[in-house]
Amino acid sequence: MTTEPQRLSLRVVVPPLGSRQGTVECRPVVDGRDVLADVFDEGPAGDPRYLLGPDAPLRATDTPREVRLAEAECTEGCCGAVYVTIKREGRRVIWSGWRNPDEDDLDLPEFRFDVEQYEAEVGRASTDHGWEWPARTVARLLEERLRGHADLLAAWECELGAVSAWHWEPDRINVFLFHPRRSAIREGRPWLQFRMTLPVSGDDPAGQADRLAARLTAEDPCEIAEVSGGSQEFARRLGYPWPGPRRRRA
């Protein structure tokens, strides 16, 4: 007997803007059931920024891939997380191998989806930005522009870390940069992280992203950003004060 495939929906949840409560979540719903609601209340589902997009981990391939769908607010190492293994087999996408490092047994069944419905839903959720507020849209577009022209930041010995917009600060974004590059961390060389907080208006998000990208690449962004990570010794060796006043030392 052929078993009917299940149906996946991906629901983005946004807390009230200005509130310190909650976080933006991408919640998987299978046949109308929020599959995380009954098995994990230690923290939120993953941010759509990480679960969706062009290289979304939710996209299914012939090679099985384990994806973290949710993590405890206090970190996985403290109170756990929810993982699932996603793979494509012919005309089906299978979710199985459910795992929570903090529990011996995670009570969720194997799900089987029709590949066309599954891929259409992941594609829809990845391109539907209607839930974003203006600052979140500016942050996404600015990050796309900066990653698309990484050489412009590299000219200043900088590498983009992330561009973030948080719902509790709905009228601003934060740009995080690494100097000289993120690879210095694993190579054991001196490194610093810089943070720049920028206001966002209700003007056209694409225009704002263009203007900010031009501003950030026209001159050394570390001259106007603040040190937010690394160490006092690394700052001394790289020629920056600690913690980050705005002027670089000669």
UniProtKB/TrEMBL annotation:
This is N-acetyltransferase. It comes from Streptomyces pactum.
